[in-house]
Amino acid sequence: MKNDAVLREEEGCRVRLVHLDRVNRARSEAIPEAEMERLALTFKVLGDPTRLKIFTALAGGEMCVCDLAAYLGLSESAVSHQLRRMREQALVRPRREGQVLYYALDDGHVADLLRLGLEHVRE
Amino acid sequence: MKNDAVLREEEGCRVRLVHLDRVNRARSEAIPEAEMERLALTFKVLGDPTRLKIFTALAGGEMCVCDLAAYLGLSESAVSHQLRRMREQALVRPRREGQVLYYALDDGHVADLLRLGLEHVRE
DNA sequence: TTTATACTTGAACATATGCTCAGATATAAG
DNA sequence: CTTATATCTGAGCATATGTTCAAGTATAAA
Questions:
Q1: The whole model's pTM is what?
Q2: What is the pLDDT of residues A45-65, one digit of tens each?
Q3: Is the CB of A83 under 7 A from strand C?
Q4: Mapping DSSP to helix (H, G, I), strand (E, B) and coil, where does residue B18 land?
Q5: Would the Cβ of B66 be found within 7 angstroms of any atom in strand D?
Q6: What positions of strand C are covered by protein, i.e. any atom < 7 Å from a CB?
Q7: What secondary structure, in 3-state letters, does B31-67 show?
Q8: A34-122 — its CATH code?
């Protein structure tokens, strides 16, 4: 089979030779934009060494902000900023005890994602 | 139990009240820095809407660069730049057929990570 | 109340990221 | 060889990101 490519035109703007069937399949199977944005945000929060260290530390049990700051050698402000981003994506969860906030992984997905990611980089 | 916190001193620089036991446990369970960097890079590549659209499109079957460009409404240059990053983390794999490069997901981990991530954002 | 502790927040800054543009490379056909 | 197609690459630029600093809130103790 040679080539089922076709010349497409779209929104008045000429495009290249493409496999229209594949493009259309991808379009029909596409994930909603809003869901895609949240998925990207989730992975983006996982995609930073500092935050990953926080995640793996919390995988061993809950810790407070100043524990994490001491562990990472960072200011508590920096850690707090990071924890906020992680909270916003429901990846960690705080529990207050007096003045201290103990953070923990929010649900099983987080640990699963870490394990899978590690399997990949170790392969 | 009240508080097992202690005042630590480290590298001549005074730090706050921390739970030393928890910090030490985190330290002993820490993942090697180099591995952490690769893990962060992997998630970082997953953490962008454009690249996620490429990943999910490829989950339905292999596609060439210009197919992806047409699907995304982006230049082939932009797509090629993204595919390079994805290749560098062994997340996609090209197969040459004449002048055309067909890209596919590199291994099962990628699809698993996407599925897990979607489960999380849909919860 | 005042003081201290634990954490959060907003602004500022240096670095990183994603896209476009122009040009380079690779394969195929004449 | 020349020409065309498909993809890649480096530079440049606008925006996003991670940290620090200074100031703010929340809880507890004196």
A1: 0.90
A2: 999 999 999 999 999 999 999
A3: yes
A4: strand
A5: yes
A6: 4-11, 17-23, 26-29
A7: CCHHHHHHHHHHHHHHCCHHHHHHHHHHCCCCEEHHH
A8: 1.10.10.10
